[in-house]
Design goal:
The complex is a heterotrimer of chains A (290), B (265) and C (279). With 290 residues, chain A is of the alpha/beta class. Chain A has helices at residues 46-53, 80-86, 103-113, 118-131, 148-160, 178-194, 206-212, 230-233, 237-242, 249-261, 272-285; strands at residues 3-12, 20-30, 35-39, 61-66, 69-71, 87-90, 166-170, 198-203, 215-220, 223-228. Chain B has 265 residues and is mainly α. Chain B starts with 15 loop residues before the first helix and ends with a helix. Classes of the chains: A alpha/beta (290), B mainly alpha (265), C alpha/beta (279).
Chain lengths: 290, 265, 279
């Protein structure tokens, strides 16, 4: 599903003394199948933006297209449930939404609401459970007996079980330890590829944006500040620093390297290993190329 | 968006009424609530009304806030007024509508009762409009202090109230967050048959309770780590000051009471 | 006088008879005015250590001493004066209805006079650079600001050791930076030992020593520099290796003789420059 934002603005508590414009004249087009990272500070409008993606909010100005679903200030899709079943949202700390007595019931909750039949739900459970790294003996346990990381996996399984075409992830790794973070992001990336999803990742981590995203949108104070491929966006250090965003550490290092050595190594989303061999060349041969 | 959360109806200000010791305000309002029922003629009502209106104007709270407080009870006031006109058949008939005689006694009674209502609501909303919830909590703690002798948990009660005040905005945010998460999982809170809508509350309430319990547990631990061991030997940063202003107000209010007793029949 | 501030002697702990051991036979020491980082994956027992240090929990085996005092029921109120703690969730440790009420909470509990509280509030809010927020309500503060208030609240009672128990885990990068800058400033100005508990290796660079926890055991006591050189092992116990350490390692693999494990960009660039000028 293509996602299109056309001059979208959203004002909270419009026509009141507390009115507050959270996003302002946003324009972008996300083609189906893209992995997009949305980066910005707390309060840059990220969470307001993602709430438009499944109709939790309607724009107060402009229009939003999610595939064939059209949202404008005075029009919302007739079949909101269908939109919500096509767009799965993993909110921050999704483990807070668990409520059922057993893990099986909690995972089934979404699909059931969307009218999926029992046997199909069972099939989906069997599919998503291993995908999030859990085993079948968990199914009849209470979600509240699990560790924080496991609870999060259950909550994510609940979203995946609705078989969304668009997956929205709002800082899905917050609070996990490094291994947990990596495993979770790899899992989402795997899912993105296998299911041909359109994935929208809201993150603070420039490293994650570089590693997984095809496309980056930088938000600042509710407006689109920059947009493009990670290797284009993240080299613009001055512009990013102007809004107090970091660049990936490797970009900073390349800058400092150039300042010290007078040799410029372009940022191509290279791995540490690739970078090391380039540097080795500079040191041994005095140039970037062999 | 978070900044929009306002607890209670407090209107910030620095008027005489704002600056009064909250204990003074609570005590006076408490007494006022009783003496309103003593008024039984024009003069006694006039005295109480003057007092209430004078407080209102000194508080400099915009009239519209006060009217907003009265809004939900307007209906009640008018209803009592009409009821008395209809029921009471005392005094002389004043006029007739639709062949229904309205007596002077009914008018007077109806007016008196509505006036009582109006005065009660006016002074109590003045309290909440000019006093922060935490000041009210402190005042209640201080006023109830003597009950400690009979083992009434005054300090605990006040602490409970202040922690509730502290966490109301947090829990409101949490409620919104969870309801959005469940709406994304296909819960419909707004339409459908009542039975479904009642059922839709479960996925909202269970997570809210779970999180509230977790918060309570963590908060208790944090408080303990910060040396909390009950009210014993505790000092307070926030202090209530009983000043000259309060004495003047008490004297003023006493004259109101004396005036009331002298004028009533 | 010994310099030992905290001492764990063969400490083991579990939450109940039937439960598995969370800590197994842990022993270590922390000295006065030292900055020690405890690091480990989630569930490695690192947060339990913090709670044992001020008597929120008691060990089943072994003893814990804080400044020479054994931690037990009779001493916890004295010990909690010496051990200040900042927890993970910024909301669930903010007791007051305003910033100054929250900073005062710990002092009120200990019977400080009102004048004393007012002066200290000024001083500690200054130390965490939150002096303009004295009367602000918590729901108008960011997570990072709330955590700075939590630090101020702890400093107000002049503890001997300040524990940050994953205090940055729920913050955004900006909030994290604020806290790390605050902590560095505090460590310099106050005579206080610092114990930072984290799973973020970036946050341990400035520490004097690191205690690495794994599966409830002290896996290693070392310096950040030595730790960074053990990449394979770190990954095995679920931790991450900072970019600069990974790069240094890859450079070694590529035949560049890096002699000292670099802690930051500057150190690595200097070494590379030396090698470069030689060729």
């Amino acid at each position: 599903m293509d996602i299109i934002f056309k001059n979208v603005s959203y004002t909270y508590q419009q026509n009141s003394p507390f009115a507050h414009k959270a996003i302002d004249q946003l324009n972008f087009h996300i083609p189906s199948g893209t992995f997009v990272a949305i980066v910005g500070h707390t309060g840059s409008g990220k969470s307001t933006l993602i709430q438009h993606l499944n109709g939790l909010l309607q724009p107060t100005e402009g229009e939003v297209w999610i595939g064939d679903y059209h949202l404008t200030p005075d029009k919302k899709p007739k079949d909101m449930k269908k939109l919500r079943s096509s767009v799965g949202v993993v909110f921050q700390y999704p483990e807070h939404q668990l409520f059922e007595e057993t893990i099986a019931k909690d995972i089934s909750f979404g699909p059931k609401n969307f009218g999926v039949g029992d046997s199909e739900i069972q099939r989906r459970i069997n599919e998503v459970l291993p995908a999030v790294g859990l085993t079948e003996d968990f199914l009849e346990r209470s979600p509240f007996d699990l560790s924080g990381g496991q609870m999060r996996r259950v909550a994510i399984a609940g979203v995946l079980a609705t078989k969304p075409k668009v997956l929205v992830l709002d800082e899905p790794t917050a609070g996990l330890d490094p291994r947990g973070q990596r495993e979770m992001m790899d899992m989402f990336y795997d899912r993105h590829q296998k299911e041909r999803l359109t994935t929208i990742l809201v993150t603070h981590s420039m490293e994650d944006a570089v590693t997984y995203a095809d496309h980056v949108i930088i938000l600042n104070k509710g407006t689109k500040y920059m947009e493009g491929k990670p290797e284009e966006v993240f080299v613009q250090k001055a512009a990013l620093q102007k809004v107090q965003l970091d660049v990936p550490e490797i970009v900073t290092f390349l800058d400092r390297f150039e300042a010290r050595f007078g040799v410029s190594i372009p940022f191509t989303r290279q791995t540490e290993k690739e970078l090391a061999s380039t540097i080795a060349n500079v040191i041994k041969e005095g140039s970037v190329h062999e | 968006m978070n900044n929009a959360i306002v607890i209670g109806q407090y209107v910030p200000g620095n008027s005489l009424v704002h600056r009064l010791d909250p204990r003074t305000k609570i005590t006076i309002i408490f007494i006022f609530v009783f003496i309103v029922f003593l008024a039984n003629n024009v003069w006694s009502y006039a005295i109480l009304t003057t007092f209430a209106l004078a407080s209102m104007f000194t508080s400099r709270v915009p009239i519209r806030f006060i009217l907003k407080g009265l809004l939900p009870v307007w209906f009640l006031i008018i209803f009592t007024f009409l009821l008395h006109i209809i029921i009471t058949k005392e005094g002389t008939p004043v006029f007739e509508i639709f062949s229904f005689k309205v007596y002077s006694g009914g008018l007077i009674q109806g007016f008196a009762i509505s006036m009582r209502f109006f005065l009660l609501i006016l002074v109590t909303s003045l309290l909440t409009l000019t006093t922060t919830p935490i000041e009210i909590t402190d005042a209640i703690e201080s006023l109830l202090h003597p009950l400690k002798r009979v083992k009434f948990p005054v300090h605990e009660l006040a602490l409970m109230m202040s922690i509730s005040l502290r966490f109301i905005p947090t829990l409101l945010q949490e409620t919104e967050k969870i309801s959005k998460a469940q709406a994304s999982r296909g819960v419909d809170f707004r339409t459908g048959p009542i039975k479904d809508r009642v059922e839709a509350v479960v996925p909202l309430l269970v997570p809210l309770f779970v999180s509230a319990f977790k918060r309570a547990e963590e908060l208790a631990m944090a408080m303990e780590a910060r040396g909390y061991q009950g009210g014993e030997g505790r000092t307070k940063l926030r202090e209530l000051k009983f000043g000259k202003l309060d004495i003047i107000i008490y004297i003023l209010f006493s004259t109101v009471i004396i005036g009331l007793i002298l004028t009533r029949n | 006088m010994s310099n030992k501030l905290v001492e764990f002697r063969n400490v083991s702990f579990r939450y109940g008879e039937e439960q598995p051991w969370v800590l197994k036979n842990c022993s270590f020491e922390i000295y006065k005015e030292e900055w020690v980082a405890i690091i480990g994956h989630n569930g490695s027992g690192k947060s339990t250590i913090a709670k044992l240090m001020n008597g929120l929990l008691f060990p089943q085996e072994g003893e814990i001493y804080i400044d020479g005092k054994l931690v037990q029921e009779e001493t916890i109120w004295d010990i909690r004066k010496d051990v200040g703690m900042v927890f993970q969730n910024p909301d669930n440790q903010f007791v007051g209805t305003t910033v100054q009420d929250d900073v005062a909470f710990g002092m009120e509990n200990r019977g400080f006079s009102r004048e004393d509280m007012l002066t200290r509030i000024e001083v500690v809010l200054d130390a965490v650079r939150m002096q303009d927020y004295r009367l602000t309500e918590p729901h108008r503060l960011s997570g990072g600001q709330k955590q700075r208030i939590a630090i101020a609240s702890v400093l107000a009672i002049s503890p001997k050791v300040l524990i940050l128990d994953e205090a940055t885990a729920m913050l955004d990068p900006k909030g994290r930076k604020e806290i790390m800058a605050t902590v560095t400033g505090v460590q310099e100005k106050n005579n206080v030992a610092l114990l930072t508990i984290t799973h973020d290796l970036q946050e341990i660079v400035q520490a004097d020593r690191v205690i690495v926890m794994n599966e409830g055991e002290v896996w290693q006591e070392t310096t950040p520099r030595t730790l960074f050189s053990q990449q394979q092992e770190l990954r095995e116990i679920g931790l991450d290796v900072p970019f600069i350490a990974t790069l240094a390692n890859e450079l070694k693999q590529a035949g560049i003789p890096i002699s000292q494990e670099p802690l930051n960009h500057k150190e690595l660039l200097e070494e590379l420059w030396t090698l470069y000028s030689r060729t």
